[in-house]
Specification:
- There is one protein chain.
- It contains 9 helices and 6 strands.
- By secondary structure, the protein is of the alpha+beta class.
- The strands form 2 sheets. The protein has a 4-stranded antiparallel β-sheet with strand order 1-2-4-3. A two-stranded parallel sheet has the order 5-6.
- α1 packs across α2, α6 crosses α8 and α8 packs across α9.
Amino acid sequence: MKREIKKIDATKREMFVEVFSKTFKEKFEDVYKKVSPKLKVQGFRPGNAPRDIIEKHFGQALRQQAIEEIIPEVVNKIIEDDKLEVIDTPQISDINWLNDTLSFKASFEVRPEVIVDKYKGIKIKKEKIEVSDDEVDKVIINLKEEKKLEAIDDKLAHIVGYATLADLKDALKAQLWLEKDNQRKAKIEETIINEISGNIKFTVPKTLIDKRLNELVNQAKVRLAVQGFKEADVAKQEEEFKKRLKDQAEMDVKIYLILEEIAHKENIAHDKNIGLKVLEFLYKEAVWE
């Protein structure tokens, strides 16, 4: 087998492969043994027709199946042997059969090199969370107006599931504190991500951008559908969504690849929650001022 891999740009690769006669004949034999017993030839019982008769009737189909089986096997072996971090399904083209040699091209994208050095010890300002009585009172007033009550008392608390007005106030204060804490954590995560990603530059693979963009567009379409928009009106917004969300898709992928590289450096298990795990790690490694 002969192969050559060309670097088209930072992430795109093109592989040219030639599979010589011996290797292809072995694959053809495998296909023949697997398929020939099932083939029907007039005048013969299935599996009893002579090989030359079978090849005369089905030779082209058998060769085509051998080609379809051997190409992914060869491509996957080259990817494994060369330790290529392929991030999409290779696109096969220019398949040729000449002088008992099979040749083809495979195009694909690889994971870009992401160099992350400074990610520990990010400085974060401590923010004390406080919930004032006025904030709690505003929520209670809104509840009173929604329930159309004349007074703010234990009756209001009973309606929303609490024994006393004091219990309701305590619960609201805890809820408001939790909301502020979540907002604080989101700001810290944003600070950490901006600090890490600001000076890191690499080519973000188009394959991953397109995949993320489709996810964001579908989410936007679902939100419109939930709001009661008709299917035809939602469909009209698709191109506008793609234009508006493209930059966000690219940034999302960039951040993910950076966090993935940190996970690799820190031996953090790779799973669907890898982003959250890395952020938790960076949170603990931050320097609080």
